[in-house]
UniProtKB/TrEMBL annotation, chain A:
Annotated family: Belongs to the TRAPP small subunits family. Sedlin subfamily.
Any single GO CC term annotated in Swiss-Prot or TrEMBL for this entry: perinuclear region of cytoplasm
Keyword terms of this UniProt record: ER-Golgi transport, Membrane, Transmembrane, Transmembrane helix, Transport
UniProt name for this protein: Trafficking protein particle complex subunit 2-like protein
Chief location category: cytoplasm
Gene behind the chain: TRAPPC2L
Top-level taxonomic group: Eukaryota
Any one GO biological process: endoplasmic reticulum to Golgi vesicle-mediated transport
Source organism of the structure: Oncorhynchus tshawytscha (Chinook salmon)
Automatic annotation (TrEMBL), chain B:
Annotated TM spans: none
Compartment list: Endoplasmic reticulum; Golgi apparatus, cis-Golgi network
Keyword set, alphabetical order: Endoplasmic reticulum, Golgi apparatus, Neurogenesis
Family: Belongs to the TRAPP small subunits family. BET3 subfamily.
GO BP terms, alphabetized: endoplasmic reticulum to Golgi vesicle-mediated transport; nervous system development
InterPro entries the record matches: NO_sig/Golgi_transp_ligand-bd (IPR024096), TRAPP_component (IPR007194), TRAPPC6/Trs33 (IPR037992)
GO CC annotation terms, alphabetical: cis-Golgi network; endoplasmic reticulum; trans-Golgi network; TRAPP complex
Gene3D superfamilies: Trafficking protein particle complex subunit 3
One Pfam family cited in the UniProt record for this chain: TRAPP
Lineage: Eukaryota, Metazoa, Chordata, Craniata, Vertebrata
Predominant localisation class: endoplasmic reticulum
Organism expressing this protein natively: Oncorhynchus tshawytscha
Protein's recorded name: Trafficking protein particle complex subunit 6B
Length: 169, 161
């Protein structure tokens, strides 16, 4: 179960980002954005590597790590009541995020962020999540009402993603 | 591998689309260019969607030549039930795809009759190739030429971005 799922166009802007809980959306925008560098690295490495590196699934983007602290969040902390300060610290110290990447042949990138404490999530489960994303994305692409390059507003796509996200408590 | 259910259905529809576009435009010589553009743009959007479907399960492409080979073999087979007969390149971004028996021209003539109408029947496919390449990250200009039907050549000029 993911905490954030993003679809990024080949020009590296987001076509779709969903995160749980919704208030954390901005920090997930940052998370996904920084993951793009790793994705680019992995793709360009493929060009020089062997043929068996050519599958679409990229796997783990970073080794599991503590959640990064971003300067803008620290500035906000000083101006908010103390309880929110503690909440943020809790967030920063306790939640670890693991990101997985996948790039289609059409250079569209999918990033899935999961809570690192969820160790029951296996590699083949992540692969099947990407497979579902890719299938739904293909359907969106073939929809005549969708203009390639627009943000994805398909309800079918939304419900497929909802089924893969952790339930908001 | 994804294959068109029955190619005759697409051929009939393709021919009717061309008739429709020409009939619904105003009369005048300059309209020909506008109709060709409309057909090409249609092909472009279809190509984008098709390539997404066709490349869903294929391995990542190594380079530009790999992409062109895919277009000539798998893509052409999926859409036209045959491969491109000959691919030539100058290794500097120009590719010529030769189809000796292009499926959308076989019903037109077996020689030079109706040659002046051939471009109309190639516009959609030019767009198809351009759209497919575009979604694979390759910007191009695709044109076609015919001298004796049903053979034709598609010229792909890769645009450096």
């Amino acid at each position: 179960m993911a905490v954030c799922i993003a679809v990024i166009a080949k020009e590296n802007y987001p076509l779709y980002i969903r995160s749980v809980p919704v208030q954390n959306e901005l920090k997930f925008h940052y998370t996904v954005h920084t993951s793009l560098d790793v994705v680019e690295e992995k793709i360009s490495a493929v060009g020089k590597a062997m043929a068996d590196q050519r599958e679409l699934y990229l796997g783990l983007l970073y080794p599991t790590e503590d959640y990064k602290v971003y300067p803008s969040h620290m500035i906000i902390v000083y101006y908010t009541p103390v309880c929110i300060f503690f909440l943020l610290i809790e967030n920063i110290l306790l939640y670890r995020h693991t990101r997985y990447g996948y790039v289609t042949n059409s250079k569209v990138k999918f990033v899935i962020v999961v809570d690192s404490s969820n160790t029951s999530l296996r590699d083949n489960e992540i692969r099947s999540m990407f497979r579902k994303l890719h299938n739904s994305f293909t359907d969106v692409m073939c929809n005549p009402f969708y203009n390639p390059g627009d943000t994805i507003q398909s309800k079918a796509f939304d419900s497929m993603v909802s089924a893969m996200m952790v339930q908001a408590s | 591998l994804f294959v068109m259910a029955d190619e005759a259905l697409f051929q009939f529809l393709h021919n009717e689309v061309i008739q429709y576009i020409y009939k619904s435009s105003e009369h005048g010589e300059m309209e020909n260019g506008r109709c060709i553009t409309k057909l090409e743009n249609m092909g472009f959007r279809v190509g984008q969607g098709l390539i997404e479907r066709f490349t869903k399960d294929t391995a990542r492409f190594k380079d530009e030549l790999d992409v062109m080979k895919f277009i000539c073999k798998d893509f052409w087979t999926c859409v036209f039930k045959k491969q491109i007969d000959n691919l030539r390149t100058n290794h500097q971004g120009i590719y010529v795809l030769q189809d000796n028996k292009f499926r959308l021209l076989t019903q037109l003539s077996a020689g030079k009759q109706y040659l002046e109408h051939a471009p109309k029947y190639l516009a959609f496919t030019c767009g198809l190739v351009r759209g497919g390449l575009s979604n694979l990250g390759v910007k191009s200009i695709v044109t076609a030429e015919v001298s004796v039907m049903p053979a034709c050549k598609f010229q792909v000029m890769i645009q450096k971005m």
